[in-house]
Give the backbone structure.
Amino acid sequence: MPQYYIWTIGCQMNKAESERLGSFFEQRGYQAAVAAEEADLIVLNSCVVRQSAESRVVNKLSALKPLKRLHPDLTLAVTGCLVNSEADQLKKSFPHVDYFFKPGDHPQWLEKAELGPVLPRHPTPSTFVPIIQGCDNFCSYCIVPYRRGRERSRPVTEIACEVKELVHRGVREVTLLGQNVDSYGHDLPDKPDLADLLRELNTIDGLARIRFLTNHPKDLSPRLIEAVACLDKVCELICLPVQSGNNDILTAMRRGYTVEYYRRLIARIRSKIPGIALSTDVIVGFPSESEPQFQKTAGLLSELRFDTVHVAAYSPRPGAIASRELEDNIPLAEKRRRLNKIEQLQESIATEINARLLGETVEILVEGRIKGKWQGRTRTGKLVFFGDSGDYLGQLVKIRIDKTSPWALQGRVELNSIN
Ligand code: SF4
């Protein structure tokens, strides 16, 4: 039986697509290889959102050259955001790669016919479901719209059928994915929005939880806030990247909102959805970001106190607007200093937020076992570990928290439920 191996880096969308690619290969008689060296087909699902990610992809491709030389029959393919429209250029740069195919596409050399979506064969209790591909926003630092193209939503009925089938295969929780889930549906005939989709999925028997990411502050609607507040399966967690706490930087980033607007949006979300957890993304060292502008970002994070902050140092992406028009003029050491500052700040905020859960009982969905401990997440996305000899995979379990840290919680089973 031929074997396949998929190497994935990058966002959850890449992970979801790799999971589905694996099923696609298995339906065609392949089985998963434990190592690239044993595979007949290797796929690299790439990310180029930052220079560091692109470098890892290029290094991995170089490392595979000797293997390809040794086994010329090995098929080497690349998908993900490295694959742009300049296929000839890619082929010239990586002549040992047999095929390049666009993110979300099926490998056309294996199957010429048009295919519907392929589902993960053995999904984990919590599984990703892409609902919209591409992005129409063109934030100045971002390469995604150039690589993943314009927005294309999947119909509500198609997604609902898929989720029902996933539940049939043991899934309890789905995370709906899109570069901007708030854009969902505008390109479909009846123009449903994310709130409509959540209402539909909320009726699916056996499905316990629904999540979604990522949102865009300029597009998040009152209807969505209302849906999160009133639908029992929709989890209380919103990922809302702010990127900067300074209006001039936000304008240069072409984000389409101001700090004041963002602050009001957070206040509205918190007032309508009690217990909501919020996560955000921040970029430090954007071209010409001054120290006071950086301090505005730090100040906003201190004020709004997010549960999680993902911080990245600005990395120019060739082809993106900022890399064409703005000089990358913040030294690397300064970017690192700012990044460390934000990480330290967030560590202390998350320490305080999570410490409030000490002694509380939380419900988690058990997703797996790592180093002898079960792990799962609360509805608000907190990672929880507990030790127990029972089999809890895929169950909703009540855990009493007896230890907290900025990154995770630990506890013991109080009462479990298998509903
Ligand atoms: S919303 Fe902006 S940052 Fe997000 S994928 Fe689209 S262009 Fe990139």
Observations:
- Residues 135, 137-139, 142, 144-145, 179-180, 216 surround iron/sulfur cluster (CB under 6 Å).
- The mean pLDDT is 93.
- The longest strand covers residues 361-370.
